[in-house]
Every structure is written in C-alpha cells, then in structure tokens.
Design goal:
By secondary structure, this protein is an all-alpha fold. It contains 14 helices and 3 strands. The protein folds into 3 domains: 67 residues, no CATH class; 51 residues, no CATH class; 192 residues, no CATH class. The longest helix has 26 residues. The chain is elongated, with a radius of gyration of 29 Å.
Length: 318
Amino acid sequence: MILQSRVNPLSSSLTGLLMKKFLRKIEGHHKREEGNHVDTNGDLRDKYGALVARGSAYYRRRRRGKAAAPSSSLEGLPVELKVLILQSADITSLKALVHASPTLHRAYRDQRGAILNKALHGVLPPDLFFEARSLFRVLRLPRDVDPRARSEAVTRFLIDYKTTRNKGLFPCETLDLRILIPMTKFQLMIEALALQYCNAVLAENPVTEKASSDFRTPTGTELKRVYRALYRFDIYCALFNVQKTWNAENRELWRRSFGLLAISRIFLSTFAIWEVEEMACVGLYILDRYDVYLRAAGNTDLADGKKESQRQRQRSGM
C-alpha cells in the first residue's frame, strides 16, 4: 500500500500534503474512539475492555475527549480540501454540492473563479472548450448595426475560427467570472439537451421506428460528440440569423450575402461531412421538438425560419 511504503508519493505535491493532513485527522479521531467503548448502561471501557471508574480523572478526560472528537464528515474538512473536492467535481455535481452544504458554498464563493475554470476544463476537452468559447465570442459580436458592419465582424470571426481549427492548437484559457458564469449555465443546458436527444433519437430503431431493445446509456465520449454538435449548431445560428431590428431591405441584403451556398462555402466547408451531418441531426431535432412550444408562446421566428429553410432546400434540390 502507498501509506505503508518507505517513500510516500503523496508528499510530492500540495494535494498530497493536504490529503496526509486529512488522513492524520481521521486516524486520530479513530484512535480516540478505540479507547472510548461505551456500554448500553453508560459505562466507559478502555481499549482492553476494562471498566473505567466514573468518578476518576481518566473517565472525565476520556468523556471530554469523546465529546470533542472532530467530525469526519464533509462539513468538518479543512477549507483546502473542500476546494479540492469542488474542483474535482463535474458541473452537475458541483451545483448539487454547493446547494447542499453551507460550508461548501462558502468555500465555493471564496474560490469561485478557480473552481469554475477547473470544472469547465474538466468537462470539456480543449477542442470542445474552444467551441464553447467561440459561441460566446459570436454572441458578443455587434448586433444593432447595419448588415455591412455585421458582415465584416462575422468574416473576421470566421477567419480566426478556421485558422485556430486548422492549426489544431487550442489555447487553455483561464476566464473571468463575467464569461465563466454564463458559460457554466449554458453547459448545464447543453448537457440536459444532449441527454434528451440521445433518449429520444438513439433509443429508437430507425428501421422499425420502435423502441430499441438493446439501447444503452451513451458513454462520456458519445455525449461529448453531441455537445460538440450542439455548440456548432448554436454558432451557426448565432452567426447567420437575421437581426430583428433590421428593416425589409437590410434583411434581404443579408440573405443575399449569406445564403445557403455562401454559408456552405465559408462555414460548413470547414468541417468534415460527418461533422456537418451531426449539426444537421441535432438541428432538426431541436426544430421538430420545440416548434410546438415556440408557436404556443407566440414566437414564430424559429418556426418561420424552419419553413424557409425547407423551401430553400426544395428549390436547390437538396
């Protein structure tokens, strides 16, 4: 065992030192409990089973030591260990831990930036983190401007986006809370939508259109592929949607600049065919699933966009 070896590898890092401190604390707690065996009638016995006189100083000292024994629960851990536990959790577990424990919530508030950075990088590998960060860069592009200024901003973004993807070197960014908090909330929505997509689409046999008998819960790698498709579909929608503040002339100018062929050339050609198919699948699922809710809420933009895309595909023979 590691703890019985002559050279302890845990001592080579800060995490190891903190874990050793925690183990010593737990070990001392158990040693104190070994000498405090209390019978059902309240008699105290030492570790050899001998009865301890109630009026003796040893009895009072042992009873005080038992009452003051530190708790080995999560609440009694040092702050450093609480932070390490929060940093090692995924986003869903982090949310549950922070809402379940006031002491963990205080530790989270003190180190929120470091904890959220660690959680996001733990859930999203570098290439997927780049897609998520790119989406929020797109959302910060100027909106209430004329189509020409918007087109220039979109073009600059696409140049940087394609250059980074072609190099394959994705920077490991440390973000501030202004970006971290909305990214973390959005990732929670992406995870929920990915599970809904897998349960609704993958659980059905495409031939018989019935529930598949051998459906298994998707693995982490499979879920990350769905995350990637959802992020890229969101980037596609955020880049090329028509702004509500534009008049009919500006809308028509934007559609002429970024029609289906132009989008295929400047954006979709960046990806492999199977990656475009991923985006198309999740896009159709979202449109088919939420069309009825959008119409019920009176928001027909997405539904109208769906019909328009279908008409354009029919005209182009797709």
